[in-house]
Design goal:
Layout: E1 7-9, H1 14-22, E2 27-29, E3 36-40, H2 44-54, E4 63-65, H3 69-73, H4 80-89, E5 94-99, E6 116-120, H5 125-134, E7 138-139, H6 154-161, E8 167-169, E9 181-184, E10 189-192, H7 198-205, E11 210-211, E12 234-235, E13 243-246, E14 254-255, H8 262-279, E15 286-288, H9 297-308
Parallel strand pairs: 1-8, 2-8, 4-6, 5-9, 10-11, 12-15, 13-14, 13-15
Antiparallel strand pairs: 2-3, 3-7, 4-7, 5-6, 9-10
Helix pairs in contact: 1-5
The protein binds threonylcarbamoyladenylate and magnesium ion.
Length: 318
């Protein structure tokens, strides 16, 4: 998987990118959350190539991207909660896990042999156009090497996967900046906090959402605890430090959002984690300012605490 030539494509090359997906190639593309590494989800060889390119353990299932709820319902059975959430939030930054439907046609590698599948209809215009043109369900984990921070620009994608994938469509930075919220249905429960706040999900459901955030259990989604691994050690909820990642009034080398805006902080999170990791040399500790646990703050704190977790040394997901 090394040293294939990776083409950088633009929005003008979408038909070409769609053809590459149809031909079983690996193409990274932007969504409103993060860049995904796409492959035809029905093509087992192409899906296997995703795992190989990322160096990802194969027990970890992938999210399948489709252009519409109708396309999603060809793959999985949606119960009332799943339908309510899809109607309220698709297209958008939430993935729904639902039971596979007979005749779904997906490679079993996509679901890692589970009888459920995680599906998402992204809102990003280019992503939706690409999915429509490709005409196949597209499996797409975040387009980073396993264990590294999710990419929010095409340059981030290339820094990890250049020479390992066939192409990347560059359409600028991702607006949301953290991965989708993942909700299992039947019964509805939160598997991963993400780009859509839990408060919004609960308001649409009309009842509280259960939680199933069991870390270190690869068949349940969440991820292993140490997932986003900067080289430098990080400490959270700090008021000061030699190398500060600030938020609001706590200033530092970089600031996620001086005005304390959680949307801005999410959009900046992964870029700034990369930048501050590059600024840290030797034993420098990265200190991160406190971030409130409301709205997107839940997802931001989740990603930061994974980055700050002691390294497990074992396999990571994502
Ligand atoms: O925003 C996102 O979700 C991005 C963009 C590219 O769409 N994708 C992404 O995918 O973050 P990935 O592969 O890095 O994360 C997929 C997560 C994993 O934690 C996995 O365990 C969970 O989804 N997952 C996938 N299928 C599942 C299933 N059938 N049941 C439970 N969890 C599942
Ligand atoms: Mg990931």
């Amino acid at each position: 998987m090394v040293n294939i030539s990776t083409k950088t494509l633009s929005a003008a090359d979408l038909a070409k990118a769609a053809k590459m997906l149809q031909d079983g190639k690996l193409v990274a593309f932007p969504t409103e959350t993060v860049y995904g590494l796409g492959a035809d989800a029905r093509n087992g060889t192409a899906v296997a190539a995703i795992y190989a390119a990322k160096g990802r353990p194969s027990f970890n299932p992938l999210i399948v991207h489709v252009p519409s709820l109708e396309a999603a319902q060809e793959l999985a059975d949606f119960d009332d909660d799943a339908l309510a959430l899809a109607q309220a939030f698709w297209p958008g930054p939430v993935s729904l896990v639902a039971p596979l439907k007979a005749g779904h046609g997906l490679s079993s590698l996509v679901t890692a042999g589970l009888d459920t599948v995680a599906i998402r209809v992204p809102e990003h215009a280019l992503a939706r156009d690409l999915l429509t043109l490709a005409g196949c369900p597209v499996a797409a984990p975040s387009a980073n090497l396993s264990g590294q921070i999710s990419p929010t620009t095409a340059a981030h994608v290339l820094s990890g996967l250049q020479g390992r994938i066939d192409g990347v469509v560059d359409d600028g930075p991702c607006a949301v900046g953290v991965e989708s919220t993942i909700v299992a249905t039947n019964p509805a429960r939160l598997l991963r906090p993400g780009g859509l706040p839990v408060e919004a999900l609960e308001a649409a459901l009309g009842h509280p959402l259960g939680r199933d955030l069991t870390p270190d259990k690869p068949s349940a989604p969440g991820q292993l605890t140490s997932h986003y691994a900067p080289r430098a050690q990080m400490r959270l909820n700090q008021k000061d430090g030699a190398l500060m990642l600030g938020f609001g009034p706590v200033d530092g080398a970089l600031n996620l959002s001086r005005s304390g805006d959680l949307l801005e902080a999410a959009a900046n999170l992964f870029s700034m984690m990369r930048q501050i990791d590059d600024m840290a040399d030797g034993d420098t500790l990265i200190s991160v300012a406190p971030i409130p646990m409301t709205g997107l703050g839940l997802a931001i704190n989740d990603r930061l605490s994974r980055a700050a977790a002691p390294r497990s040394g074992g396999a990571t997901t994502g």
